[in-house]
Write a structure and sequence with these properties.
- The longest helix is centred in the last third of the chain and has 17 residues, at 292-308.
- It is globular and about 60 Å long.
- The protein contains nine helices and 14 strands.
- With 313 residues, it is α+β, with helices and mostly antiparallel strands.
- Strands 6, 7, 8, 9, 10, 11, 12, 13 and 14 form a nine-stranded mixed sheet that branches.
- Strand 9 (205-210) and strand 10 form a beta hairpin.
Length: 313
């Protein structure tokens, strides 16, 4: 069985981190929330994954905006202004003495309920806001070895069932897809939309390169990925033709390159998809690492992260 795409070496510094629970800094072993919390009972909440680079957070405004947009969509008042939330974030990071190589999970749930029931009107507290910063770096072996993807039968559904643009705590369809891919010996699940076109992966966004063109899905059946959006913009700046369009597994199997993107690891190349090596269909060469377009985008993205790292909106 393949490892998780988020496979990392355990950093002993994380054993002593302080976690922010509703503004109170608590040692890791003592950080707790109520069993009546909306997030625990029903997955009722939204979250963001962020990285700390050189003392700041790249694309901070975009992450905070997406969090508040998700909260508005589910009719949840976070209870803090964006500026107050950012201050709380950096209070936590500064209390831990963190500067670089940090991954942050920022979670907001609807709060504590009077009884285990879905109706938001039984919520009796302000929203629960938890910030977990950890020293966590992507495993370089993943990029060197390349990922193995497996197409699963779990679909990214219609927005009138559960809008896939929501970065919500309710991730059961992605978890089921992840399990299916892991049982197939893959690193990540490739998921289709309701029409059978490629949508995204279970925890990352998916791109292919075909004959010099960069393709990704329409974006209608996945969260509005911040790294995804940056890759699209960078491709335009680098003169790489880029298209957000419906495409099928036929197009994927004939691609010259493929990669996934996400806040945690940036860009990771893909080596095999459904047992088929990622290479031009007329080629018999063994996979030897990220292709030329993947390499250019990865380098440009790393530069952009360092340039955009900030501590305020």
């Amino acid at each position: 069985m393949a490892d998780s795409i988020h496979d990392v070496k355990i950093d002993p510094r994380n054993l002593d981190i302080l976690i922010s629970v509703n503004g109170e800094l608590v040692p890791r072993g003592q950080a707790m929330i109520s069993v009546f919390d909306s997030g625990f009972i029903l997955g009722d909440g939204v979250w963001e994954g962020l990285r700390m680079v050189k003392g700041g957070v790249p694309f901070l405004r975009e992450h905070v905006e997406r969090l508040y947009e998700g909260a508005k969509a589910i009719f949840m008042d976070i209870g803090l202004t964006p500026e107050e939330l950012v201050k709380r974030l950096f209070d936590c990071l500064d209390a831990n003495g963190m500067e670089d190589g940090v991954h942050i999970r920022l979670m907001v749930t609807r709060g504590v309920k009077a009884t285990p029931y879905q109706d938001p009107r039984v919520t009796i507290s302000a929203p629960t806001i938890v910030i977990i910063p950890e020293y966590k770096e992507p495993n370089p072996e993943k990029s060197q070895r390349g990922l193995v993807l497996h197409t699963v039968n779990v679909r990214r559904g219609y927005p009138d069932v559960q809008d896939q643009k929501l970065n919500s705590h309710s991730k059961l369809n992605c978890i089921t897809a992840c399990i299916q891919a892991a049982n197939a010996g893959a690193d990540e699940a490739l998921m289709l939309d309701p029409h059978g076109f490629v949508a995204t992966c279970n925890s990352t966004h998916f791109f292919i390169v075909r004959r010099g063109e960069l393709w990704t899905s329409t974006g209608q059946y996945c969260i509005p990925g911040i790294t995804r959006g940056n890759m699209i913009r960078l491709a335009g700046q680098l003169g790489i033709p880029v298209f957000e369009k419906p495409f099928s597994l036929y197009d994927v199997y004939g691609a010259d390159e493929a990669f996934v993107t996400g806040t945690f690891a940036g860009l990771i190349p893909v080596r095999v998809i459904d047992g088929r090596p990622v290479r031009h269909p007329m080629s018999k060469e063994e996979w030897s690492g990220a292709g030329p377009i993947s390499q250019r985008l990865s380098a440009a993205y790393k530069e952009l992260c360092a340039k955009d790292s900030r501590r305020s909106l």
